[in-house]
Amino acid sequence: MARKALIIKDENRKKMILKYAQKRKELKEKGDYATLDKMSPNSSPTRLKNRCKVTGRPRGFLRYFGVSRIIFRELASRGEVMGIKKSSW
Fold first, then answer.
1. I want to staple 52 with a disulfide (CB 3.0 to 4.6 A). Which of 30, 46, 68, 86 is the partner?
2. Burial class (CB within 10 angstroms; exposed 0-12, middle 13-18, buried 19+) of 72
């Protein structure tokens, strides 16, 4: 499981991105990159990291399901993911 501080930091980034999205868009349209540089780097959407909703793990993230590959496998094995079943041959 990821450290709580990293999960909280990522949530704060999400809030900041939403807060400054309109202002960043306006500055980009004007071409005012000097003011854009002075803004917090955490307000940029590229700083956001996809994390598992259950564990907060940043690697092996499956976008469609919103969880990491490990949690996805556990959920699929238990039959908790609709339309997914374990294959065997």
1. 68
2. buried
Task: Give yes or no for a contact between 41 and 49, defined as CB atoms under 8 angstroms apart.
Answer: no
Structure tokens belonging to residue 86: 């374990």
pTM: 0.73
Residue 76 near residue 84 (C-beta atoms within 8 A): yes
CATH (domain of 72): 4.10.830.10
Q: How many domains does the chain have?
A: 2
Q: Is the pLDDT of residue 64 over 90?
A: yes
Which range marks the domain in which residue 17 is found? 1-49
